[in-house]
Amino acid sequence: MNTISKEHSGPNGVRGIIFDLDGTLLNTLADIGDSINAMLAEYGFPGHTMDDYRRFIGNGIRMLVMRALPIEGRSSEMMDRCVQRARERYWDNWNRKTRPYDGINELIDALETKGLPKAVLSNKPHDFTVRYIDEYFKGRHFSVVLGQSERFPVKPDPASALEIARQLDLPPSTILFVGDSIVDVQTATAAGMRPVGVGWGFKGTGDLKVNGCPTIVEHPLDILGLI
Ligand SMILES: O=C(O)COP(=O)(O)O
Predict the structure, then answer these.
(1) Record's InterPro entries (predicted)?
(2) Could you report the per-residue pLDDT of 29-40, keeping only the tens digit for each?
Protein backbone atom coordinates (compact mmCIF):
# COMPACT_ATOMS: atom_id res chain seq x y z
CA MET A 1 0.00 0.00 0.00
CA ASN A 2 1.27 3.45 -0.86
CA THR A 3 1.47 5.36 2.41
CA ILE A 4 2.99 8.49 0.91
CA SER A 5 0.97 11.61 1.74
CA LYS A 6 1.08 14.25 -0.95
CA GLU A 7 -0.97 16.60 1.15
CA HIS A 8 1.58 17.65 3.71
CA SER A 9 3.38 20.89 3.15
CA GLY A 10 4.80 22.98 6.00
CA PRO A 11 4.92 26.79 6.01
CA ASN A 12 8.25 26.62 4.18
CA GLY A 13 6.84 24.46 1.40
CA VAL A 14 8.76 21.35 2.44
CA ARG A 15 6.94 18.17 1.42
CA GLY A 16 9.54 15.47 1.92
CA ILE A 17 12.94 14.70 3.48
CA ILE A 18 15.87 12.64 2.30
CA PHE A 19 18.44 11.58 4.91
CA ASP A 20 21.99 10.46 4.42
CA LEU A 21 22.76 7.42 6.59
CA ASP A 22 26.38 7.26 7.85
CA GLY A 23 27.09 10.22 10.11
CA THR A 24 23.54 11.57 9.82
CA LEU A 25 21.01 9.02 11.10
CA LEU A 26 23.47 6.48 12.51
CA ASN A 27 26.90 6.68 14.06
CA THR A 28 28.42 3.74 12.18
CA LEU A 29 32.00 5.00 12.45
CA ALA A 30 33.44 2.40 14.85
CA ASP A 31 31.88 -0.61 13.13
CA ILE A 32 33.16 0.56 9.75
CA GLY A 33 36.61 1.43 11.07
CA ASP A 34 36.98 -1.81 13.02
CA SER A 35 35.91 -3.86 9.98
CA ILE A 36 38.33 -2.18 7.59
CA ASN A 37 41.14 -2.40 10.13
CA ALA A 38 40.44 -6.14 10.51
CA MET A 39 40.61 -6.57 6.73
CA LEU A 40 43.88 -4.59 6.55
CA ALA A 41 45.41 -6.69 9.34
CA GLU A 42 44.60 -9.89 7.43
CA TYR A 43 46.71 -8.66 4.53
CA GLY A 44 49.48 -7.30 6.77
CA PHE A 45 48.67 -3.65 6.05
CA PRO A 46 48.68 -0.97 8.80
CA GLY A 47 45.37 0.15 10.29
CA HIS A 48 44.01 3.66 10.84
CA THR A 49 42.46 5.73 13.63
CA MET A 50 38.74 6.45 13.77
CA ASP A 51 39.50 10.08 12.92
CA ASP A 52 41.14 8.87 9.71
CA TYR A 53 37.95 6.97 8.89
CA ARG A 54 35.90 10.16 9.29
CA ARG A 55 37.78 11.41 6.25
CA PHE A 56 37.80 8.11 4.32
CA ILE A 57 34.02 7.47 4.52
CA GLY A 58 31.58 9.17 2.19
CA ASN A 59 32.21 8.11 -1.40
CA GLY A 60 31.28 4.44 -1.25
CA ILE A 61 33.02 1.26 -0.11
CA ARG A 62 35.48 1.02 -3.00
CA MET A 63 36.81 4.51 -2.36
CA LEU A 64 36.91 3.79 1.38
CA VAL A 65 39.04 0.69 0.83
CA MET A 66 41.30 2.51 -1.61
CA ARG A 67 41.91 5.34 0.85
CA ALA A 68 42.69 2.84 3.61
CA LEU A 69 45.17 0.81 1.55
CA PRO A 70 48.80 1.82 1.17
CA ILE A 71 49.69 2.89 -2.38
CA GLU A 72 51.45 -0.43 -3.08
CA GLY A 73 48.23 -2.31 -2.24
CA ARG A 74 46.04 -0.47 -4.74
CA SER A 75 46.37 -2.70 -7.83
CA SER A 76 42.95 -3.45 -9.26
CA GLU A 77 43.28 -7.14 -8.40
CA MET A 78 44.21 -6.37 -4.77
CA MET A 79 41.47 -3.76 -4.57
CA ASP A 80 38.86 -6.31 -5.70
CA ARG A 81 40.00 -8.80 -3.06
CA CYS A 82 40.13 -6.18 -0.30
CA VAL A 83 36.69 -4.76 -1.14
CA GLN A 84 35.22 -8.26 -1.05
CA ARG A 85 36.93 -9.05 2.25
CA ALA A 86 35.95 -5.66 3.72
CA ARG A 87 32.32 -6.39 2.86
CA GLU A 88 32.55 -9.79 4.59
CA ARG A 89 34.19 -8.35 7.69
CA TYR A 90 31.66 -5.54 7.84
CA TRP A 91 28.72 -7.90 7.28
CA ASP A 92 29.81 -9.74 10.46
CA ASN A 93 30.55 -6.58 12.48
CA TRP A 94 27.94 -4.14 11.23
CA ASN A 95 25.93 -3.60 14.43
CA ARG A 96 28.32 -3.95 17.36
CA LYS A 97 28.77 -0.28 18.20
CA THR A 98 26.43 1.49 15.79
CA ARG A 99 23.72 3.67 17.35
CA PRO A 100 21.29 6.34 16.13
CA TYR A 101 22.43 9.83 17.11
CA ASP A 102 20.63 11.41 20.06
CA GLY A 103 17.38 12.98 18.93
CA ILE A 104 17.08 11.05 15.65
CA ASN A 105 14.28 8.74 16.75
CA GLU A 106 12.37 11.71 18.18
CA LEU A 107 12.80 13.55 14.88
CA ILE A 108 11.62 10.56 12.84
CA ASP A 109 8.56 10.21 15.06
CA ALA A 110 7.74 13.91 14.79
CA LEU A 111 7.99 13.74 10.99
CA GLU A 112 5.76 10.68 11.05
CA THR A 113 3.16 12.61 13.05
CA LYS A 114 3.29 15.44 10.53
CA GLY A 115 2.79 12.93 7.68
CA LEU A 116 5.95 14.05 5.93
CA PRO A 117 7.44 11.32 3.69
CA LYS A 118 10.97 10.28 4.61
CA ALA A 119 13.65 8.57 2.52
CA VAL A 120 17.25 7.42 2.94
CA LEU A 121 19.98 7.82 0.34
CA SER A 122 23.43 6.42 1.13
CA ASN A 123 26.68 5.68 -0.66
CA LYS A 124 26.88 2.60 1.58
CA PRO A 125 26.12 -0.60 -0.39
CA HIS A 126 22.38 -1.06 -0.84
CA ASP A 127 22.15 -4.35 1.09
CA PHE A 128 23.88 -2.82 4.13
CA THR A 129 21.71 0.30 3.93
CA VAL A 130 18.49 -1.72 3.97
CA ARG A 131 19.81 -3.92 6.77
CA TYR A 132 20.60 -0.90 8.95
CA ILE A 133 17.23 0.76 8.41
CA ASP A 134 15.37 -2.49 9.10
CA GLU A 135 17.33 -3.11 12.31
CA TYR A 136 17.65 0.36 13.82
CA PHE A 137 14.34 1.88 12.72
CA LYS A 138 11.97 -1.04 13.32
CA GLY A 139 8.38 0.17 13.35
CA ARG A 140 9.31 3.47 11.72
CA HIS A 141 8.48 4.03 8.08
CA PHE A 142 10.75 5.23 5.28
CA SER A 143 9.04 5.54 1.91
CA VAL A 144 12.25 4.86 -0.06
CA VAL A 145 15.59 3.41 1.06
CA LEU A 146 18.39 3.51 -1.50
CA GLY A 147 22.00 2.52 -1.06
CA GLN A 148 24.77 2.27 -3.59
CA SER A 149 24.23 -0.26 -6.39
CA GLU A 150 24.76 -0.78 -10.10
CA ARG A 151 21.53 1.12 -10.74
CA PHE A 152 22.91 4.59 -10.06
CA PRO A 153 26.27 6.35 -9.84
CA VAL A 154 27.34 7.25 -6.29
CA LYS A 155 26.48 10.63 -4.77
CA PRO A 156 27.19 13.49 -5.58
CA ASP A 157 25.70 12.42 -8.91
CA PRO A 158 22.04 13.49 -8.49
CA ALA A 159 20.46 10.53 -10.33
CA SER A 160 19.61 8.53 -7.20
CA ALA A 161 18.21 11.60 -5.39
CA LEU A 162 16.06 12.40 -8.42
CA GLU A 163 14.83 8.80 -8.49
CA ILE A 164 13.67 9.24 -4.89
CA ALA A 165 11.85 12.47 -5.83
CA ARG A 166 10.17 10.54 -8.64
CA GLN A 167 9.11 7.74 -6.30
CA LEU A 168 7.81 10.25 -3.74
CA ASP A 169 6.06 12.05 -6.60
CA LEU A 170 7.39 15.38 -5.31
CA PRO A 171 9.16 18.27 -7.06
CA PRO A 172 12.85 18.24 -6.01
CA SER A 173 12.58 21.84 -4.79
CA THR A 174 10.16 20.76 -2.05
CA ILE A 175 12.59 18.18 -0.60
CA LEU A 176 15.07 18.76 2.23
CA PHE A 177 18.25 16.74 1.81
CA VAL A 178 19.90 16.26 5.21
CA GLY A 179 23.50 15.06 5.44
CA ASP A 180 26.81 15.44 7.25
CA SER A 181 29.16 15.79 4.31
CA ILE A 182 29.86 18.04 1.40
CA VAL A 183 28.96 15.08 -0.85
CA ASP A 184 25.39 15.37 0.42
CA VAL A 185 25.30 19.14 -0.10
CA GLN A 186 26.60 18.71 -3.65
CA THR A 187 24.04 15.98 -4.34
CA ALA A 188 21.18 18.12 -3.04
CA THR A 189 22.28 21.14 -5.04
CA ALA A 190 22.74 19.14 -8.24
CA ALA A 191 19.26 17.62 -7.77
CA GLY A 192 17.62 21.01 -7.14
CA MET A 193 16.80 20.05 -3.53
CA ARG A 194 17.39 22.04 -0.33
CA PRO A 195 20.64 21.04 1.39
CA VAL A 196 20.78 20.88 5.19
CA GLY A 197 24.13 20.12 6.83
CA VAL A 198 24.33 18.53 10.26
CA GLY A 199 26.81 19.36 12.99
CA TRP A 200 26.81 15.98 14.77
CA GLY A 201 28.19 13.76 11.98
CA PHE A 202 31.57 12.44 10.88
CA LYS A 203 32.76 15.54 9.14
CA GLY A 204 32.15 18.52 11.43
CA THR A 205 30.76 21.78 10.12
CA GLY A 206 34.02 23.33 8.88
CA ASP A 207 33.88 21.72 5.45
CA LEU A 208 30.17 22.40 5.11
CA LYS A 209 30.67 26.10 5.87
CA VAL A 210 33.68 26.49 3.58
CA ASN A 211 31.68 24.91 0.77
CA GLY A 212 28.76 27.27 1.26
CA CYS A 213 26.16 24.96 2.80
CA PRO A 214 23.29 27.44 3.33
CA THR A 215 21.72 25.74 6.37
CA ILE A 216 23.45 23.85 9.17
CA VAL A 217 21.65 22.35 12.17
CA GLU A 218 23.25 21.31 15.46
CA HIS A 219 20.52 18.97 16.77
CA PRO A 220 18.11 16.67 14.89
CA LEU A 221 15.03 18.40 16.30
CA ASP A 222 16.23 21.72 14.81
CA ILE A 223 15.10 20.26 11.47
CA LEU A 224 11.49 20.62 12.55
CA GLY A 225 11.95 24.38 12.42
CA LEU A 226 12.82 24.17 8.72
CA ILE A 227 9.67 22.48 7.48
O1 LIG B 1 29.50 4.51 2.93
C2 LIG B 1 29.74 5.67 2.50
O3 LIG B 1 30.63 5.93 1.68
C4 LIG B 1 28.96 6.81 3.01
O5 LIG B 1 27.65 6.49 3.31
P6 LIG B 1 26.62 7.72 3.46
O7 LIG B 1 26.33 8.16 2.05
O8 LIG B 1 25.43 7.10 4.16
O9 LIG B 1 27.29 8.78 4.27
Answers:
(1) HAD-like_hydrolase_sf (IPR050155), HAD-like_sf (IPR036412), HAD-SF_hydro_IA (IPR006439), HAD_2 (IPR041492), HAD_sf (IPR023214), PGP-like_dom2 (IPR023198)
(2) 999 999 999 999
Q: Is the CB of 201 under 6 A from ligand 1?
A: no
199: CB partners within 8 A, 6+ apart: 205, 216, 217, 218
Are residues 66 and 54 located together in one domain of the fold? yes
Whether 102 is catalytic is no
Specify whether 85 is located in the same domain as 126.
Answer: no
pTM, two decimals, is 0.94
Residues 32 and 57 sit within 8 Å (Cβ to Cβ): yes
Domain count, the chain: 2
Q: Is the CB of 93 under 6 A from ligand 1?
A: no
Residue length, the chain? 227
Mutation to probe ligand 1, out of 32, 104, 122 (largest number of atoms < 8 A from CB):
122
